[in-house]
Amino acid sequence: MSEATPEAEPVENQELKQLNRSVNLSLVFATVVFSILVGVYTYWFWFINDMTFSTDSSLWGTFGDFVGGILNPIIAFLAFYWLTRSVIIQKTELAATQKVLAETEKATKEQAITQEKKRFEDTFHSLLSQLNTISQQITHEPTLQNSSQQSKLTVLHSRVLRSGEYDTELCVDRMRKNDADCSHYFRVLYQILMFIAMKHEFSNFPENFDEAMKRERTESEKFYSNIVRSFVNMDATRLLAINCATLDESDSYYKYRQLLERYEFLEHIRVEGMKSLSDIDSFYNKSAFGKHPTLGIPE
């Protein structure tokens, strides 16, 4: 069996040991210098000059001044050295602390964005599921006395977009008076598009609708709005176009219209043979129709 490899010692412990070693060396150096100084002085006067210890206090004062005059610069140098070392060490530790704090702040922000994204997607899928449930309800064709009946959406479509009519404003009025059975569907659809516009960046800062509309549309917005658009069938798309056909900025449906334009929501609308939709493009900017072959922005 091979011997276990010892774990590497943390860098902090290595640096601490090195620092303690340097301090001990400084103490040893000061002690050795002092000892050598006293030894040389004693040897010179005691053994070379055969002098005894003096009882004159003034001579001992002179001796003290001599020793102090030599040791003081050395001690002052060591004190200055360790003072500068302590400043460098403190700056190093401060820089390391700031780095750790910056990394912690970055990780916290990333975690917050991840959590916000999860909340956004959970809410988005919940709203989409609700829209799908309502869609099934209004497109369901009930059976009465063994006879299949028209769905609520089909009934509304036939009431609003009557054949042979060219008056879009009349269709708009008729839509808003007869959409009771389907209004919930269009309200939820509006809330989903509004939710995408206001929350797609997964940030917590407050933003009003006008500010959101002034921002350049992001790929994230388009991605989520395309998913929503795929859940809306053709009858609902035509009725949606009629529902939001307004040029009046004070109209309660004007924001809805702006969302349709922002997300090219009418790109796949089919207007062939629909005389009541012949001038629908006059109520919208071309951006609402995306790359539609006749109503959209030409490539």
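The above is record 1. Record 2 follows with the same two-line structure.
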Amino acid sequence: MRPALSSLKTWFERSSLPLSEKQYKQLWLYHTLLREKNEQYDLTRIYQFDSMVQKHYIDCILVAKLLHWKLPSPILDIGTGPGLPGIPLKIACPETAFILAEGRHRRIEFLKEVTEILNLGGVEIYEGKIYASFRKRVNGVITRALETIPKTLARVRNCLEEGGKAIFMKGPHCDEEVAEASGRFGQEYRLLKDIPYTIPHTPHRRRLVVFQKVA
């Protein structure tokens, strides 16, 4: 039997991440599009339903929960790929404005389709890589398995507002990155949060690391 919307709901409820009916339907539609368009646009290498729900949707929305459902806005999602973490986070926190940055044209086309079909307002799609020359002002940036923390902090130093947050979705072994970032950028950023967590009902360990721009 093929998974249905009810299967998605069950995973979220078991993970203590209850969403509204509208949010479940949006997330299910996103999942359906991700599956349907994957071969055409080369979107993800995770295909199995439970793994997609756990590693893509639940892991992304856990970030919002760990940050008390308050994300900086506008927030720049660097290297978003097919919209991860940006699209699930936008569904969970609809009042947050997002800039989804992606360098690969095929994935940009998918992001345009998704935002139109899901009727997601307050989402800007930026085609291209984010360099230190990017100067559109934002109150937050977020990355997921993109590069080291110090590289991203250097990349966003000219676009992140003072007081803005750089949010990193990392694996459990990022102590060296955190230490290097604190050492190199101690005058510009301070370590605000370092939260270890596990994706519910899985062995997958994660770290949510947040730096704040101070100067």
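The beta strands are 75-78, 98-102, 123-127, 138-144, 160-170, 189-198, 205-213.
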